[in-house]
Design brief:
- By secondary structure, this protein is mainly alpha-helical.
- 69% of the residues lie in helices and 0% in strands.
- The protein has eleven helices and no strands.
- The chain has helices at 10-32, 42-61, 69-91, 98-101, 110-136, 148-172, 176-189, 205-208, 212-224, 232-257, 260-263.
- The longest helix has 27 residues, at 110-136.
- 31% of the residues are buried.
């Protein structure tokens, strides 16, 4: 199938890209859980196991006094897992799909988007459990919950920007995925996922605030645990930064994509 047959009008290209993204996400989800007994429910196994272990270690052994710590922890784990897993898997998206890359006119930039979209679905599947934890702890849901789609969209922009950069770099430098896995492991512990930022010495706060995921995780917690709207200035900066990052990442990816077939 040649992708050059699609109309060249911008609206038609956009609709085609949307439909193609949807079909590829569905394909990815089907292949991921093909012949699996639990199927998509495996999405919940990893974050729940992480929750049980970290909750026991920090709440029981270290006796962390953070209110509603189980829900607090689950928010951090699920939002971070979406970012980390999507970026890491998207790094190999080009090398994993050589047949699609060789198709004339195929929009290669959609492949990292597919990975980010698939893991967005995984994140959304965890939300009912998260809301269940919030209600179980008698935390009232306020109108701030209307901010949730906005925060998710901002995280999507940021995640896709990093995913595009990682994907095009990995085609040329095959160590990228290995280096990135180490970096993301370290970044997990340097992001307030398992602990509160207030536990970090004040002199390090400015470094933590340079990490966009610090603000993303806090935005989810503000909405669901504190019943507050996330800080508007921070959200505007993250949205603007995400849009700029995505634009730069797409430009870099577009230039690099001319040599993808030769690099495969």
């Amino acid at each position: 199938m040649s992708f050059l047959t699609v109309s060249k009008t911008p609206s038609r290209r956009l609709l085609h890209a949307r439909d193609l993204l949807f079909e590829l996400v569905v394909r990815d989800m089907k292949l991921r859980y093909k012949r699996s007994f639990l199927g998509i429910l495996w999405t919940l196994v990893n974050p729940l196991m992480q929750l049980f272990v970290y909750d026991f270690v920090f709440r029981v052994l270290f006796q962390v006094k953070t209110p509603n710590y189980t829900a607090y922890l689950f928010i951090g784990i699920t939002s971070w897992n979406w970012f980390q897993t999507a970026v890491l898997e998207a790094t190999g998206a080009i090398l994993s799909n050589p047949d699609l890359i060789r198709q004339p006119g195929f929009p290669t930039a959609i492949l990292p988007n597919v990975t980010v979209g698939s893991h967005l679905v995984h994140f959304l599947i965890t939300l009912p459990i998260l809301f269940g934890l919030v209600l179980y702890n008698s935390i009232p849901l306020t109108a701030a919950v209307l901010w949730l789609p906005v925060v998710i969209l901002i995280q999507y922009l940021l995640t896709l920007g990093f995913a595009l950069i990682g994907a095009c770099m990995h085609v040329r430098f095959r160590d990228t995925q290995y280096l990135l896995s180490v970096f993301l492991m370290l970044a997990f512990f340097l992001t307030p996922v398992l602990y509160e930022l207030s536990m970090v010495p004040e002199r390090y706060h400015r470094y933590y605030r340079m990490n966009p995921m610090t603000h993303m995780v806090d935005a989810y917690r503000a909405i669901l645990l504190r019943g507050e709207s996330p800080d508007l200035n921070t959200m505007v900066l993250l949205a603007g930064g995400g849009a700029v990052l995505l634009g730069l990442a797409y430009s870099l990816f577009h230039r690099a994509s001319a040599n993808f077939v030769e690099e495969l």
